[in-house]
Amino acid sequence: MFEDRLRVGIIVGSTREGRFARTVADWFAGQARQHPELEVDLIDLAEVDLPAVMPAAPTPQLAEYTARLDAADSFVVVTPEYNHGYPAALKAAVDLAHAEWQTKPVAFVSYGGISGGLRAVEQLRQVFAELHAVTIRDTVSFHGASECFDAAGNPVDTTGPVAAAKVLLDQLVWWARATAEARSRRPYS
């Protein structure tokens, strides 16, 4: 067991009523909890009271949210694809923070119809590049997501998603350690 575990903030990007997001996010969080180097903080945007308008001064809820982001060493964004893009609530949640994202790795777990949410991921890569974050190349993607999980919330394919999650998490840990070491040696400005 690693003494210096890394904190990964898993962000549930959909707030839509009747969403499938928690099925995907809960499964992935379970995979992340099995990684010996990770400590998981599940940040469900449907449960975080973020302001609809950017406030002049942080609200207590916004301060709590950005503190959770700041405490994370890395992130995994779980996103659906809505209308060939990612959810508005996710965009707002990303934009309400800034320095908290910088120099930290961000990975993606996506789901949707035929594209499996990959168009949303490609757009998010551009947004996180602007925030000076590092995105992880490999993703976990569920095409036709509702058919990919059984009634208990487990993937029907018992090998592919687990293998993809392991690759993603191993890469995320590597980047999280590398960027943390770089920040400690030379603060980013």
Which helices and strands appear, and what pairs or packs with what?
Layout: E1 6-12, H1 21-33, E2 38-44, H2 60-71, E3 74-80, H3 88-95, E4 105-112, H4 118-130, E5 134-135, E6 140-143, H5 145-148, H6 160-185
Parallel strand pairs: 1-2, 1-3, 3-4, 4-5, 4-6
Mean pLDDT over all positions: 96
Assembly type of the chains comes to: single chain
Distance between the termini: 33 Å
Helix count equals 6
Proportion of residues in extended strands = 15-25%
- Level-1 CATH class name: Alpha Beta
- How many domain regions? 1
Structural class: alpha/beta
CATH architecture descriptor: 3-Layer(aba) Sandwich
Q: Low-confidence stretches at least 5 residues in length (pLDDT < 50)?
A: none
Number of E-type strands = 6
Q: What's the CATH superfamily, by name?
A: Flavodoxin domain
> From N to C, what is the helix and strand string?
EHEHEHEHEEHH
- CATH topology-level name: Rossmann fold
